[in-house]
Structure formats: C-alpha cells, structure tokens
C-alpha cells in the first residue's frame, strides 16, 4: 500500500475504529449466516474487533501486501475463521462477506473524517484492493478446508459401505454397493483381508448385487481383491451377477477367473458344501394331538 494512502487511513482508523466496528456489525447481522444459530453475537464482535486491530497493526508496520510478515497474524486469523466456517456448514458467500462487508464502512468513515486533499481517493482505492486480497485469501482457505472435509467424508463413507459379515464359521460375505474404483478397491481389500485373518475364514463371498455395472476396470479391481484373499488362504466366490451384467461382460470379453453364482444364497450354499455342510428343510412336527 502506498505511503500516502497509509498516512490517510491509519489516523482515521485509529481515531474512529469503534465507528467502523459498529457499522461493520450492522452490515453483518442481517446476513443469514450470522443469525445467531451458529455464531453468537459476542463471538462475531470479537472476530471483527481482532480483525481491525490486526489490520491496523499491519498497516502501522508498513506492510505493502498481505504476503508481508506483518500480515501473518491476520492471515492466521482468517485461516482459522475460514476453517471454522467450513466445518460449521457456512456457505462460501457467508464466509466471504465477513471481509467484503467491511469495505463500505471504511469508505464511509474515510469520506466523513479523512482530511481534504487528493490522497482520500487514493486511500479508498488502496483499502479496497487490500480487502479484495484478504477476501480472496479467505475464500482460498475456506476451499482448502472444504476439500479436506470432502476427502475425509469420502473415506468414511467408503469404509462404512464395505462391511464384512460373518455368515458362518469360516465363511465371510462382503456386499458391495455402488461404483468400485481404485481408491475404494483398496478399502475393500484391506477390510476383507483383515476380516479373513481375524475370523480365520476359508471362504469369502463378494456380492456385487449393488454394483450398477461391471466393466473391464471393475473386473480388474475384483480380481485384485480375489488374488489378495487367495494369498491369505481364502477362496472367493462372486455372487450377484445379474443377466444384464453377464451380457455386458461377455460383450467386453471380460473373464472372471473365479467361481461365480447368480445369488448370495447360491454362493452361501456352495461355501457350506466346501465345508461338508448343507442346508436342508426340517419337516414340521405334527401338532395334532394323538387320541
């Protein structure tokens, strides 16, 4: 920021900071994001007060851009504020308005109290550009937090959507729902191998009834999981291959080098037969009393 603009802004900001704060809060309160359900009045006022203090300190240090060391504390505050807003579910607009809504109060106070001269217009332009830079920095910090939250949620969903179920002693089932990509394949593989070790399972049924389509890449992911299970000493059975999927696989020339069954029930019956067991219907006892 030019020295001439700073010489205009600093005295006005130092002398009339309460006035700026009051008008700033008036502009923030009506916004839906600051209605009090997620952010209390006292907390918002504290954030605004700290921002103005840090801004004045950076300007007094003669910082020219927000990348300067003098703005480090203010950048840290905006990063914390953006992360908090993103975690609480604030929208990008509700986050950005914290900085951008300060423009008009500063312009108004400068117009009312800045000394007459040619530097007033330069001060307005300088403070506007500075707040634009701080607003963009806030949005970038907000976006980084949102992206990290989305990645973490995707990982949690992938883990929750790949439960390994014990059907019988030595028999596990892994029902898959949704698309099977490389990242999810890794989660599936880790969950299945861990369950095989814990349960000392000899057979694992991978049910793909909930997989919308099976292409060459999906088949490769399935075969990787089967191969890993075999290395752990467990045979795999794939169930849930619907007619449409079977036709698609034949058309694509996809070959699953593993036993497959149409339904989970058929796969379970096969797994039991491998253990020398079978499922039979028990004839109901005659409930009619004898004479």
From TrEMBL:
Span of domain STAS: 161-275
A Pfam family reported for this protein in Swiss-Prot or TrEMBL: STAS
Zinc is among the record's keywords: no
Cross-referenced SUPFAM superfamilies: SpoIIaa-like
Record keywords, A-Z: Phosphoprotein
Protein name: STAS domain-containing protein
């Amino acid at each position: 920021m030019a020295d001439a603009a700073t010489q205009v802004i600093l005295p006005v900001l130092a002398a009339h900071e309460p006035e700026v704060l009051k008008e700033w809060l008036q502009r923030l309160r009506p916004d839906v994001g600051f209605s009090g359900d997620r952010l209390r009045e006292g907390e918002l006022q504290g954030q605004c007060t700290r921002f103005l203090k840090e801004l004045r300190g950076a300007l007094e240090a003669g910082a020219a851009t927000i990348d300067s060391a003098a703005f480090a504390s203010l950048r840290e505050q905006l990063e914390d504020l953006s992360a908090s807003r993103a975690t609480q579910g604030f929208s990008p607009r509700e986050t950005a308005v914290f900085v951008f809504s300060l423009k008009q109060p500063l312009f108004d106070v400068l117009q009312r109290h800045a000394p007459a001269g040619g530097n007033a217009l330069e001060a307005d332009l300088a403070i506007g550009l500075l707040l634009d830079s701080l607003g963009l920095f806030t949005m970038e910090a907000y976006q980084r937090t949102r992206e990290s939250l989305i990645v973490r949620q995707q990982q949690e969903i992938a883990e929750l959507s790949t439960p390994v179920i014990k059907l019988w002693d030595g028999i596990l089932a892994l029902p898959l729902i949704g698309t099977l990509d490389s990242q999810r394949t890794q989660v599936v593989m880790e969950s299945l191998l861990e369950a095989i070790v814990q349960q000392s399972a000899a057979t694992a049924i991978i049910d793909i009834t909930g997989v919308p389509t099976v292409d060459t890449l999906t088949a490769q992911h399935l075969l990787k999981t089967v191969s890993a299970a075999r290395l752990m000493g467990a045979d795999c059975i794939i169930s849930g291959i619907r007619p449409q999927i079977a036709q698609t696989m034949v058309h694509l020339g996809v070959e699953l080098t593993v036993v497959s069954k149409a339904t989970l029930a058929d796969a379970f019956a096969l797994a039991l037969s491998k253990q020398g067991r079978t499922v039979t219907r028990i004839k109901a006892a005659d409930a009619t009393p004898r004479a």
